[in-house]
Amino acid sequence: MLKKIAIVAGGDSSEYEVSLRSAAGLKKFIDPDRYETTVVCLHGALWEALPDDGGRYPIDRNDFSYVRDGERKTFDYAYITIHGTPGENGLIQGYFDLIGMPYSSCSALVSALTFNKFTCNQYLKGFGVSVADCLLLRNGERASADDVRERIGFPCFVKTTTGGSSFGVTKVKDPTLLDDAIDTAYKHGNEVMIEAYMKGTEITCGCYKSKTKSVVFPVTEVVSKNEFFDYDAKYNGQVSEITPARLSAHLTHRVQELTRKIYELLDCHGIVRIDYIITEGERIQLLEMNTTPGMTATSFIPQQVAAAGIDIKEVLTDIIENR
What is the C-alpha separation between 13 and 164, in angstroms, rounded? Predict the structure, then answer.
């Protein structure tokens, strides 16, 4: 009998549609000879199973089951592909822990830590990982242009600590536009970080670890046609993604080993993607962690898996079977 996999998608963030696209990608990638997959969409209080018959069936939150044609359907495993809350910040992981459902991603604690960009970066900074200088604002706090100029400098980036896909992110060159950027960021969360601009080459690297192996994928170089890697660049083709990245073998190895180190420091699970920028002197600066990275056909992880010469079905089978 095929193991039944719930591909858990949707969520309550601005990345709802992106998550559904990742779910469609996973449905194609997961081996149909081993697993029966069903997309389960979470949106606010509405949790629904979306099986291949085209119906929509309410999820019973007591055990994450649903009833179709008078028969109760259950799952053996949850593959989480929600980008943002509640799938990337530990909430759904805590729920699955409570009901005893195995799942694909990091634990509730690690997911909560990595979801907050400021908290995660400062935590990893304590282990010697390089990160940008940053100011943190909470609950409507403001920062003056003079304070930012003295402590961070211009240009700078203003963004929420918990946003994704560059929603609410502003690159501020003109100090007179700082207040507007802070207002924009607060629309996406109650914490705002003002981060120093780092000039360099933006890259990203994925990895995963199972009981049997530790795999770090090839590095991807990200060349945005816009001011920075914003939503249009990510999803509307305004970017060049080069895998493997145009880095020396030595620098590539350093990036991959740092990725492995961060994964192990945090005790991550499943596929994780880590974004960096290479600044002057080949300094590797951490940008952010992604513990439920995009899984569409054109997302970074499938690109990197293909560049490594690995079958993505084997990767996903390894994650499902060998957590």
Answer: 8
φ/ψ (deg, to 5) at 217: -85, 165
State pLDDT tens for residues 167-218: 789 999 999 999 999 999 999 889 999 999 999 999 999 999 988 889 999 9
Summarised one tens digit per residue, pLDDT across range 22-70 is 999 999 999 999 999 999 999 999 999 999 999 999 999 999 999 999 9
pLDDT in tens, 243-265: 999 999 999 999 999 999 999 99
CA distance 7 to 52: 13
Q: What distance in Å separates the CA atoms of residue 301 and residue 206, rounded to the nearest whole number?
A: 6
The two structure tokens encoding residue 194: 């003002």
Peptide bond between residue 244 and the one before it cis (omega within 30 degrees of 0):
yes
Which helix H or strand E contains 8, and what residues bound it? strand 3-10
3-class SS of residue 196 = strand
Adjacency order of strands within the sheet including 130-131 = 130-131, 283-290, 272-279, 201-209, 214-224, 239-242
Beta bridge partners, 63, equal: none
Can you give the pLDDT at residue 188?
87
Which pair of tokens denotes residue 200?
């360099």
Structural domains of the chain in order of their starting residue, each with its CATH number: 3-104 (3.40.50.20), 113-130+199-321 (3.30.470.20), 133-196 (3.30.1490.20)
Give the phi and the psi of residue 69 in degrees, each rounded to 5.
Answer: 55, 40
Would the pTM of this model clear 0.90, i.e. be above it? Answer: yes
Tokens 């990275």 map to which residue?
A: 293
Ordered DSSP codes for 104-154: SS--HHHHHHHHSHHHHHHHHHTTT-EE--EEEEETT----HHHHHHHT-S
Tokens for 198?
Answer: 């780092």
User: Got the DSSP string for 243-269?
Assistant: SS-S--HHHHHHHHHHHHHHHHHHT--
